[in-house]
Write a structure and sequence with these properties.
Layout: H1 2-13, H2 22-30, E1 35-38, H3 45-55, E2 59-63, H4 67-79, E3 84-87, H5 93-104, E4 110-113, H6 115-118, H7 121-128, E5 132-137, H8 160-163, E6 169-173, H9 178-187, E7 194-197, E8 205-211, H10 215-223, E9 230-234, H11 238-250, E10 255-258, H12 264-276, E11 281-284, E12 297-302, H13 309-316, E13 326-332, H14 334-346, H15 351-368, H16 374-381, H17 394-398, E14 402-404, H18 406-418, H19 425-433, H20 438-442, H21 459-471, E15 475-477, E16 485-487, H22 492-495, E17 502-504, H23 530-547, H24 551-554, H25 557-566, H26 571-574, H27 582-596, H28 604-618, H29 623-630, H30 634-646, H31 652-655, H32 660-671, H33 680-683, H34 693-708
Parallel strand pairs: 1-6, 1-7, 2-4, 2-5, 3-4, 5-6, 8-13, 9-11, 9-12, 10-11, 12-13
Antiparallel strand pairs: 14-17, 15-16
Helix pairs in contact: 1-3, 2-3, 14-15, 18-19, 19-21, 23-25, 23-27, 29-30, 30-34, 32-34
């Protein structure tokens, strides 16, 4: 079984070997067993169900919560020559009927569905009449009622166990602590599933958390060396998303806003642009993220504190899915804590739920104030032990300075108590520094014993101290009022002199480009490689536009980088590059070889096949007859015909046997618009079920060659 799986991996996907536990998972599911897969983002979860789907007979059904994610995976599979489709609300009734007919005829291998669509009685009855290869339940943590991605429809997916008892099921997620894992098993009835728990570690991500001083300037300093990189900037409120996106655009960084308050079509347009264009920044609330499969996101920045470590891990995990270096950067301050605590207090839900959310927020704060390796602390939260510091986070690289804050902390706590436990940090710092202003005088706080006792520290040092007191639970935020501070029970031993307190000393904030951290991504390509790298990216962009898919669907950055480093000079050498499968080698191999300056010679066997194809077409054979003669798929024949037409080795009439009026209609569809020819994807809906998609590629190739004459 594993031997067959490896052949599929190489021939279809272009990879030489499985990573981590992929091989064991694929063997389990392909042989009919259930599996629960916990694998970090970018770890290769999709292959865990796509390979078994290709090994087993019948239709593979994939449950996915977002249309964007479905469309992305379908486009990727189609590029690889796999018959995949998504059934969702974007299809008309006629298109849905057509897809159902194709499924019944066995023309679709993988079907992507939203959970609410799958659990409809009509849909389940339809599937019961088919041979189902497997069910894959992606983003399975959506079943957890305690999680921030809860989807009630996921709770109904447990019925698949009873309705399809002999069909293997695989549930996959990148974010699930012990509690959520148990919930997935219980609610999806996966009691007999083998559990595959991979490491949570994402070693290619560099973590940095800085105190928030001048957040916009700090963000610009961080972005200064990342001008051509794609990234995401997360903010807590919709208003802030709009403001930051506008600010970045003014500063010359191409940025788009994304939040739930935008019209659906505008949100979808912004998401499409982010996926299709290079170097765009998406400024977003947490509404943006799940289902974003863009592998070359080089940074994720947070201008506000996430609500939990699960959210932080999931959001930062959207960077570097291709395994290449990425940055996770965050600026956080006490105001974030005040805002989140107030939001939590005002939220719906019982006290038990609020306590759980409070614990999650406390864990997030602990990571921010951590003096050890950040990666060790993050993994420990997910019950994973990293024996040695990672050497790849700010605490490891910069080192952490601590200081004995026992006496200043007592002064700060005393100031909170003596002012009546209802004032914010700004006022408390003014009292400690002995400021003579109207607010201090109006409350008579210049007469307090703590007035002016803190002149040994500066204002930013006091702010840092108060922030850390809250993070450590020694002081708390007044939820009902305006964010004033009050004492916690846990501060008593410190006030009584029974314990001492060590705090981290904040480094000077980075507000200039010069002091910004070195971009991880900017180190991908060396100076002398830059020109060829950009040429490879430009070719990828051109091909992506022609095929109507995001650039990374043609080849991810990791594959381009391997081409750049290995410098293949023939198609045989190109076939050895990771990520170049047979289909992509045939489609794009020569074009990329030309850019690399190789000989770009077609191996004799392929040249012979193409020569024979042209001869057979000129002799009047149809594409279907040629496929039978050459013993290859009809899709491959159309691909080679389109190439021959583009090179003017064949005329359209020689290649295709279409009625004249239908040929005219197809040509008109491409010529209707202004300027450049539309992609095949843009016109394919007009001819769904009427002509094979390969015909459209041939017609487009003919028109393209006319334009270029």
């Amino acid at each position: 079984m594993l031997e067959q799986a490896q052949r599929v991996l190489k021939d279809i996907f272009g990879y030489d070997s499985f990573r981590g536990r992929q091989g064991a998972i694929i063997e389990r599911v392909a042989s009919g067993g259930d599996a629960l897969v916990l694998m970090p983002t970018g770890g290769g979860k999709s292959l865990c169900f796509q390979v078994p789907a290709l090994l087993r007979e019948g239709l593979a059904v994939v449950v996915s919560p977002l249309i964007a994610l479905m469309d992305d995976q379908v486009a990727t599979l189609e590029e690889l020559g796999v018959a995949a489709a998504a059934l969702n609300s974007t299809l008309s009734a006629e298109q849905q009927r057509d897809l159902a007919a194709r499924i019944k005829r066995g023309e679709v291998k993988m079907l992507y569905l939203a959970p609410e669509r799958l659990v409809q009685p009509r849909m389940l009855a339809f599937l019961q009449g088919l041979n189902i290869a497997l069910f894959a339940i992606d983003e399975a943590h959506c079943v957890s009622q305690w999680g921030h991605d809860f989807r009630p429809e996921y709770l109904q997916l447990g019925q698949l166990a009873e309705m399809f008892p002999d069909v293997p099921r695989i549930a996959l997620t990148a974010t699930a602590d012990k509690r959520t894992r148990e919930e997935i098993v219980t609610r999806l009835h996966l009691q007999n599933a083998e559990r595959f728990l991979s490491s949570f570690d994402r070693p290619n991500i560099f973590y940095r958390i800085v105190p928030k001083e001048q957040p916009r300037k700090q963000l610009l300093a961080f972005l200064a060396e990342r001008r051509s990189d794609a990234g995401i900037v997360y903010c807590l409120s919709r208003k802030k998303v709009e403001e930051v996106a506008a600010f970045l655009s003014e500063q010359g960084f191409p940025a788009l806003p994304y939040h739930a308050g935008l019209p659906n079509d505008l949100r979808a347009f912004h998401q499409k642009r982010f996926l299709n264009e290079e170097g765009l920044i998406m400024v977003a609330t947490v509404a943006f993220g799940m289902g974003i499969d863009k592998p070359n996101v080089r940074f994720v920045a947070h201008l506000d504190l996430p609500k939990s470590l699960e959210a932080y891990y999931q959001e930062t995990g959207r960077g570097g899915r291709d395994g290449l270096p990425a940055d996770a950067w965050m600026a956080y301050g006490l105001q974030d804590v005040v805002m989140l605590k107030q939001m939590l207090q005002n939220s719906e839900g019982d006290e038990r739920h609020k306590r759980l959310e409070q614990h999650k927020l406390d864990a997030m704060l602990s990571l921010c104030e951590e003096t050890r390796c950040r990666r060790q602390a993050l993994l420990a939260y997910f019950d994973e032990d990293l024996p040695e510091p990672c050497g790849h986070c700010d605490n490891c690289v910069d080192g952490v300075q601590t200081w004995d804050a026992t006496e200043p902390a007592r002064q700060a706590l005393s100031a909170i108590f003596r002012t009546g436990q209802r004032y914010g940090v700004g006022h408390l710092v003014d009292v400690l520094l002995g400021k003579d202003n109207e607010k201090v005088r109006s409350f008579g706080h210049q007469h307090l014993s703590v007035y002016g006792v803190g002149k040994a520290l500066g204002e930013s040092e006091w702010r840092s101290l108060f922030r850390q007191l809250v993070a450590r639970g020694l002081a708390d935020v007044d939820h009902e009022g305006y964010g004033g501070l009050r004492l916690s029970d846990t501060c008593r031993p410190l006030l009584k002199g029974e314990v001492t307190l060590e705090l981290r000393r904040d480094l000077k904030p980075q507000v200039t480009a010069k002091s910004g951290s070195k971009s991880q991504a900017s180190q991908l390509v060396r100076g002398e490689e830059r020109e060829q790298w950009e040429a490879l990216r430009a070719l990828r962009r051109k091909l992506a536009e022609e095929h109507g898919v995001p650039p990374y669907v043609i080849f991810p950055d990791s594959t381009l980088l391997e081409m750049l480093r290995s410098q293949p000079t023939s198609l045989a050498e190109m076939a050895r590059v990771s990520g170049v499968g047979a289909r992509k080698l045939e489609r794009y191999g020569e074009a990329f070889l030309e850019v690399l300056g190789g000989e770009a010679e077609t191996p004799k066997v392929v040249a012979d096949v193409r020569h024979e194809l042209i001869t057979l077409a000129r002799a009047g054979m149809t594409p279907l007859q040629i496929a039978g003669q050459l013993q290859c798929s009809e899709k491959n024949v159309y691909s080679m015909l389109a190439e021959a037409i583009g090179k003017q080795q064949l005329s359209l009439e020689q290649a295709l046997d279409l009625p004249e009026d239908l040929m005219g209609e197809v040509q008109d569809a491409f010529l209707d618009g202004e300027g450049e020819l539309p992609s095949v994807a843009e016109v394919s809906e007009l001819f769904a079920g009427r002509v094979p998609e390969g015909v459209l590629y041939c017609v487009r190739a003919a028109l393209q060659s006319e334009f270029e004459m």
